[in-house]
Design a protein that fits this description.
- The chain is mainly alpha-helical.
- It is built from four helices and no strands.
- The N and C termini lie far apart (78 Å).
Length: 115
Amino acid sequence: MSRRKEIDEVRDLIETRGVKAAAKALIEVCSDPKAPAPARATAGTALLRAAGMFEKVERDDDKDVVEMDGFELRRATARICAQLDELKRSPASASFADPSADDDEDDGGDDPLFE
């Protein structure tokens, strides 16, 4: 077996069984009323950190695109795509997407905006 394959197998083991075992151990320590308070606090902190609770909540739309890192760009792009999909599904957007759906028979003849 090649060294690269062995490393990949170990990494896979850590990312599956290892993560589950670590999470289970942290939850057990955190939940054990007989565990020393510092151990429970450390376990609780590790669990909250793993859940992303300590990450600074910052809206991507508060940042200029050039200030975003790759993760923020992907998250903003996904949010925009989801909003676009929602707009495409909404009934109000059907008339914009399909010009034949325009029920306004007046094509601006008397409207000063179209002069």
